[in-house]
Amino acid sequence: AQKVTQAQTEISVVEKEDVTLDCVYETRDTTYYLFWYKQPPSGELVFLIRRNSFDEQNEISGRYSWNFQKSTSSFNFTITASQVVDSAVYFCALRLGLSGNTGKLIFGQGTTLQVKP
Amino acid sequence: DSGVTQTPKHLITATGQRVTLRCSPRSGDLSVYWYQQSLDQGLQFLIQYYNGEERAKGNILERFSAQQFPDLHSELNLSSLELGDSALYFCASDPSGGRYNEQFFGPGTRLTVL
Question: What confidence category does residue A102 fall into, taking pLDDT thresholds of 50, 70 and 90?
């Protein structure tokens, strides 16, 4: 079965602290894709990053970084020097490497991040 | 702005009624996905269309149906509405429905069933 687990339901930090959001996934497929989405209070879902299962390089984008480890089936997301604007719900998602123009996203339950000034 | 549009933004209706949610994908995207976000179920995939054809089905109730039209916009029809259908319904699109692509989400339609 395919599953995404975000064990942290809520995290609260003070501005400028670093924070890591955990994501653990389950799949038997050897080809799959992992995503992070942000859902700010306004409600829309904003794409942050995609990672392929065959590419374990970590990625940094400004204050955001992602650590992908196949050995532990984890795809963690770190925000450095957090800001109030980072307050949102963050979702990790899994997409299988299916063929035939199909591909649903399997979402974790989300982690609510509150950054206090 | 993701380029995906959804109307209406809010919908309030009564139990037993039928509603239609509309989605226009990003220009050039052939695939449309519908998701439901509720407090108890989280974000769940409902159905996918690719260039007018149904491609994948998830946890979509029989009371719900969808279609994608020749101009690629899609509609999600919800009938015999129940209180538990109250949720945020998202539409997403990507160019081909292929696994390589990220899906871009619309702003959602918040459905309240009273």
Answer: low
